TrEMBL record:
It comes from Jejuia spongiicola. The active site is at S64. Catalyzes the methyl esterification of L-isoaspartyl residues in peptides and proteins that result from spontaneous decomposition of normal L-aspartyl and L-asparaginyl residues. It plays a role in the repair and/or degradation of damaged proteins. It is an enzyme of class 2 (transferase). It is found in: Cytoplasm. This is Protein-L-isoaspartate O-methyltransferase. Its main location: cytoplasm. Its EC number is 2.1.1.77. GO terms for biological process: methylation. The keyword Cytoplasm applies. PROSITE patterns: PCMT.
Length: 213
């Protein structure tokens, strides 16, 4: 669990790459600059940890590309103290970014293996989400709703209705929608039954699957 000056230097280079790609939110960039991404990956991937690429982790999942993490997080417009629901804990890297921003994070993971691993791992790095849940992300987390924002970190063939219903008025849902290629989509809840929708181009994610295993 080492984080060296070399790692910090590589992180700064990564931050510069993200700035050049158009990420402008200072708090998001600072979070990416602070988080030791190499510790979220198998040691064999250390050399790749600070490249702007996605990489495989356990249970056929991936740790998202840093640009994608930064892009989605920027769309959420997280403020300190916001209640945020994350669908797809995965390696916990996105969770850590949200924690760095001062959000109260509730995160759902459907893969038992990843859930167990990440639940133990995040606190070791000092990241303490409000709750990590082993469950079905399609259902959201009704008992903790409403949320200031919801982020989905896997490609959804459609937008799960419960997630829209669990947003506060003024809340934001960021979700990649589509089958092979996804369109990054932002929903802003304007009124009880009124949502504003914005699209932000194509991304590729592992699929969001229903039920747990």
């Amino acid at each position: 669990m080492k984080d060296t000056f070399k790692h910090k230097g590589l992180r700064q280079q990564l931050v510069n790459i993200l700035v050049n790609k158009g990420i402008a939110n200072e708090t998001v960039l600072k979070a990416i600059g602070n988080i030791p991404r190499h510790l979220f990956m198998d040691s064999g991937f250390l050399d790749h940890a600070y490249q702007d690429k996605a990489f495989p982790i356990a249970a056929d999942q991936t740790i998202s590309q840093p640009y994608t993490v930064a892009f989605q997080t920027e769309l959420l417009q997280v403020k300190k103290g916001d209640k945020v629901l994350e669908i797809g804990t995965g390696s916990g890297y996105q969770t850590a970014v949200l924690c760095e921003l001062g959000a109260k994070v509730f995160s759902i993971e459907r893969q038992q293996e990843l859930f167990k691993k990440t639940s133990k791992f995040l606190p070791k790095l000092g990241y303490r989400p409000k709750k990590l849940i082993f469950g079905d992300g399609y259902k959201g987390l009704a008992e903790e709703a409403p949320f200031d924002s919801i982020i989905v970190t896997a490609g959804a063939p459609f937008v799960p209705k419960p997630l829209l219903g669990q947003l506060k008025i003024g809340g934001r849902l960021v979700i990649p929608v589509g089958n092979d290629v996804q369109i990054m989509t932002l929903f802003i809840r304007k009124r009880q039954k009124e949502f504003e929708q914005h699209e932000f181009g194509e991304f590729r994610f592992v699929p969001l699957l229903e039920d747990k295993n």
